[in-house]
Structure formats: structure tokens, C-alpha cells
Amino acid sequence: MSKELRGERLQIMLSPEELEALDDFRFKHRMPTRAAAVREILKLGLASTDALKSDGSKSSDYGVFSRGPKGHHDDET
Predict the structure, then answer these.
(1) pTM, two decimal places
(2) Nearest CA to 64 among 15, 30, 23, 24?
């Protein structure tokens, strides 16, 4: 079995709800690590779409859960 090279590190920040969803996916599918779960979710997501198109969206538009009209926190003033 050949070992895949993973030369790039990707750091992401998750909300508590996103982390819970990731962990639920990981344990449901008996994945050994969060990183393995993220790679599997990424693979599934990319397989379910065509090439990503630039439509002017912001990264904050792509959260797993709705963040409300004010961004991360609904209680911002």
C-alpha cells in the first residue's frame, strides 16, 4: 500500500455547532481522526458539485449553519 503525501496543512476555525456536526459524522462513520473526516466530507462535497464558480460569494456565506444577518454572532450591536 503506497502512502499518500500530504504536503499542505490547512487550518480552519469551526463554530461549536460545526465541530459537533463534524464529530457526529466522524463517529457515525468510524473515522480515526477529525482530519480524516474533513477529507471525506471534502471528497463527498466536491464529488456532488460541478467546478466551483466565482459568483462573488464571501467565505462567510459557506458556513455549515446559518450565522444570522450580522455574521458570526446574532447578539452583535
Answers:
(1) 0.62
(2) 15
Half-sphere exposure for 25 (CA within 13 Å, toward CB): 17
User: What tens digit of pLDDT does each residue of 1-10 get?
Assistant: 456 777 888 9
Q: Which residue has the cell 459568483?
A: 55
Which residues of the chain carry a pLDDT beneath 50? 1, 77
Q: Which residue has the cell 459537533?
A: 20
End-to-end CA distance of the chain: 55
> Is the CB of residue 58 less than 8 Å from the CB of residue 69?
no
Question: Residue 1 has what pLDDT?
Answer: 45
